Amino acid sequence: LITSHPLLGTGSALFANLLWLTWVFQQQRQGLFWPHAPVLLSSLLSIGVLMPWLAQHALATREHLKRQFKYYVAPQVLKHLEKNPQDLIGSTPKKHTMTVLFADLRHFSRYADNTDPAKVAQTLEIIMDSMTEVIHAHGGTVDKYMGDAVMAFWGAPLRDDQHPLNALEAAIDLYRVIERLSKTHTIPAFTLSIGL
Questions:
Q1: pTM above the 0.90 mark?
Q2: What's the CA angle centered on 61, arms 57 and 64, to 5 degrees?
Q3: In the chain, at which end, N or C, are there fewer CB atoms within 10 A of the end residue's CB?
């Protein structure tokens, strides 16, 4: 119960302790003496069992979120947010100036139509991984992958006063990385369309 429904399991354990305490105190009111040791021991045992499990569960959840986040947020941004969660923009709705980048591979659909699906997936993985590295290197956050396109933004989740410049430098490097990939990998020389 604790692993499949943690809140229900914790609530059940606490409820069982409450019932036990109520029963013991009613026994004492009727003149029956029950030592407090069993009550304290059962409470401490429940806490001793639940707290390490809850801590482990919280750490596992944190690691899972970190693994998922790493594909979208630059490592330096993730480290900063772990240490300073109050710096996260977007926890409360407000207007904020940002720079958004759209990058799309020209003629990728034609390539995909005439190529083995496994090769298409491999090519796309190489390209998107490389583009993500460039975006992260310039402090950007990947918003989404859309087939052969990527959308990223600067200026959030951390404030960045240089977001237009960082996005522009990322765009220039994206052109370079796409050109380099056609020389270092067995993929076609795609052209990249970028909008800021």
A1: no
A2: 140
A3: N
With tokens 């980048």, the residue in question is 101
Contact at 8 Å (CB) between 120 and 142?
no
Tell me how far apart the alpha carbons of residues 98 and 89 are, in angstroms, rounded to a whole number.
Answer: 11
Crossing angle of the two packed helices 37-69 and 75-83, in degrees rounded to 10: 150
Supply the pLDDT for residue 19. 77
Concatenated DSSP letters for the chain?
Answer: -TTTSHHHHHHHHHHHHHHHHHHHHHHHHTT----SHHHHHHHHHHHHHHHHHHHHHHHHHHHHHHHHHTTTB-HHHHHHHHH-GGG-TTSS------EEEEEEEETHHHHHHTS-HHHHHHHHHHHHHHHHHHHHHTT-EEEEEETTEEEEEES-SS--TTHHHHHHHHHHHHHHHHHHHHHHSSS---EEEEE-
How do residues 100-134 score in pLDDT, each as one tens digit?
A: 999 999 999 999 999 999 999 999 999 999 999 99
Q: What is the mean pLDDT of residues 20-27?
A: 72
Find all residues with CB under 8 Å of 193, minimum gap 6, and list them.
103, 104, 105, 106
Cis amide leading into 157 (omega within 30): yes
Rounded to an integer, what distance in angstroms lies between the CA atom of residue 147 and that of residue 131?
13
